[in-house]
Design a protein that fits this description.
The structure holds 2 protein chains of 2 kinds.
Chain A lengths: L1 H8 L3 E6 L3 H26 L3 E2 L12 E7 L5 E7 L2 E4 L5 E5 L3 E5 L13 H29 L1 H6 L3 H5 L1 H9 L14 H24 L2 H6 L1 H7 L2 H28 L2 H9 L2 E6 L9
Antiparallel strand pairs in A: 1-8, 2-3, 3-4, 4-5, 6-7
Helix pairs in contact in A: 2-3, 7-10
Chain B lengths: L1 H25 L1 H5 L1 H21 L29 H8 L7 E5 L5 E3 L1 H6 L3 E8 L5 E10 H8 L7 E10 L2 E8 H4 L5 E6 L2 E2 L9 E3 L12 E7 L25
Parallel strand pairs in B: 1-10
Antiparallel strand pairs in B: 1-2, 3-4, 4-7, 5-6, 5-10, 7-8, 7-9
Classes of the chains: A alpha+beta, B alpha+beta.
Chain lengths: 286, 254
């Protein structure tokens, strides 16, 4: 156990805290599974008409975003992604990509990103709507318990003092300096704001935007269509929020990796989080 | 220490388990397993059930203004049926076309286009939502299905209205079905005009169904016959419609 000895020599001590409650851990992983399936089946559904518009209806000549395959001057097909009128060659990934057993195919997102892999809208919808239910139920369990237990107020709401020092927190993050000792017992202010935005803004909004695409729900709750500025706008917002979640996920994973992958993974599975104390830090908790 | 290593092992196993579940999901074979489909179908049952609980039977789909009409209304599915019977009828501008209304009705009847135009009519500007994801707004004029059904008399054992169509896609004739609740909905019409002109062939001439709270594939084009049935399990592959037989939801509300 060389590691322990060297740590002892360096004068470090550690203590353990139960960082995440069982309900947070379980709902976190169920949520991760749901979002992964929802993302991939969502891209399958997107591929059925790989273009986005604003407003009630589709203005086919003027998409905000479109992915398709077009022949170039030599007659070879190229994948083209059009964003706000600007074309980008995205051959191999967007617009045109290789599908095992089928060769080069015109499709929005590539087979490795969609569920199912091949073009199969009916099955993509099945996956999407099934995991949408699990996502909603899981989310309600999380929200109810978070409110009832005071978890949101206690752990997610930034303190005034944290908010006042947000500049310093950003600077620390940019230098990849993460809180140690007592400060590591709670989420830092950037974590709190990111989690609050995902839990209370992005996830509810993406669910509502998804529901707005249902013609049946639109007749029950026409306010939804007004809220999102039309069914096609709702589809675009649903897509953009999914992109925001993917961005959050990438930063989240990066932070997990940089700030101690095993400590973080352990705390989100078994609950236990290790706090490193340096000598000059308060030793009451040792 | 061992305890800690166990925790790490658990974390690894959980991560690996989730990853393999996802990766295997990428392969299409998971989607092809019947039990997976049956399990996923439970969500569709839930959607149907919930929407039925929430939905007042006569909640109306939003109606739009002339200014909202789509300049280019996409035509999908069959746009120019090659079926010989249909070609013959179209060549004669559908003068010989008759809508046959049969099955579990008191007075089976045949209607010409002129007959339908003498029945009450309804005009509505609505949004057409395709299962592929796009939407177009169009103006539809036609006979409310309720008016037609009242004329022929629905027998008490009837539960579904089947629409039999003239167009063949690959090898199968197109057909669709809706429940009686939607059949008697005020916006459910048999449209013969679109945007103020007789329906074009691309959009389903001479007659197409409008069921405004559902997806485009429910709105059968080239309707030749309406049949009231107690069950559709003996029709087509038994799922109630051409696309339903190919895995799409019968209750196309999402």
């Amino acid at each position: 156990m060389g590691g322990l000895q060297s740590e002892a020599r360096a004068g470090r001590r550690r203590s353990w805290i139960l960082r995440h409650s069982a309900i947070v851990r379980v709902t976190h992983w169920i949520n991760f599974l749901c979002l992964a399936v929802l993302l991939m089946s969502g891209l399958q559904i997107f591929n059925a008409h790989s273009a986005l518009y604003w407003g009630q209806a589709s203005d086919f000549p003027h998409p905000l975003l479109a992915m398709d395959a077009r022949p170039d001057q030599q007659g070879a097909l190229r994948g083209v992604t059009t964003v706000l009128g600007h074309d980008f060659d995205t051959t191999g990934v967007l617009g045109l990509s290789y599908v095992l057993g089928f060769g080069e195919r015109e499709r929005g997102f590539p087979a490795w990103a969609t569920l199912p892999g091949m073009q199969w809208l009916a099955m993509g919808r099945r996956w999407h709507f099934f995991f949408a239910w699990i996502f909603i139920i899981n989310g309600l369990v999380y929200l109810t318990s978070g409110l009832a237990s005071g978890h949101f107020r206690r752990d997610l709401l930034p303190t005034g003092e944290q908010l006042r020092h947000i500049g310093g927190a950003i600077w620390d993050h940019l230098r990849l300096r993460f809180p140690k000792g007592e400060e590591a017992r709670r989420y830092n202010v950037l974590q709190k704001l990111a989690y609050l935005a995902v839990v209370f803004l992005i996830l509810p909004a993406i669910a509502l935007a998804g529901m707005t695409m249902s013609p049946n729900l639109d007749s029950i709750a026409p306010q939804l269509v007004i809220l999102f500025g039309g069914r096609q706008s709702a589809r675009t917002i649903h897509f953009l929020l999914a992109a925001a979640l993917v961005t959050f996920f990438l930063v989240h994973v990066l932070m997990v990796l940089l700030s101690g992958v095993w400590n973080n993974m352990r705390s989100m599975t078994s609950g236990w989080y290790r706090i490193e104390h340096t000598e000059d830090v308060d030793d009451r908790t040792a | 220490m061992t305890e800690r290593l166990d925790r790490r092992g658990f974390g690894l196993r959980l991560t690996a388990g989730l990853a393999s579940l996802l990766l295997s999901g990428c392969g299409d074979e998971v989607s092809e397993r019947p039990w997976v489909r049956h399990l996923l179908d439970k969500a569709e049952d839930m959607n149907y059930w919930l929407q039925r609980q929430l939905l007042p039977h006569h909640a109306l789909a939003r109606e739009y203004d002339e200014a909202d009409l789509s300049p280019q209304f996409r035509a999908n599915g069959s746009t120019d049926p090659e079926d010989e019977d249909y070609r013959r009828l179209a060549a004669n501008d559908f003068a010989d076309w008759r809508l046959e209304v049969a099955g579990l009705v008191e007075r089976p009847q045949r209607f010409s286009l002129a007959d339908l135009r003498t029945l009450p009519s309804r005009t509505q500007i609505t949004r057409h939502d395709c299962v592929e994801g796009w939407s177009c707004i169009g103006k539809w004029t036609g006979t409310p299905l309720a008016a037609l059904l009242q004329r022929v008399g629905v027998r008490p054992e009837a539960r579904f209205v089947m629409f039999h169509c003239a167009d063949t896609i690959s090898v199968d004739r197109y057909y669709e079905s809706i429940g009686l609740g939607d059949a008697f909905h005020p916006q459910t019409i048999l449209a013969y005009d679109m945007n103020g002109a007789p329906l074009s062939v691309a959009h389903g001439a001479p007659l197409r169904v409008r069921v405004e709270r559902q997806l485009g594939y429910k709105m059968a084009k080239y309707v030749m016959a309406i049949e009231l049935v107690e069950s559709f399990s003996h029709i087509g592959r038994g799922h109630g419609g051409f696309w339903e037989d190919r895995g799409y939801e019968w209750y196309a509300g999402i």
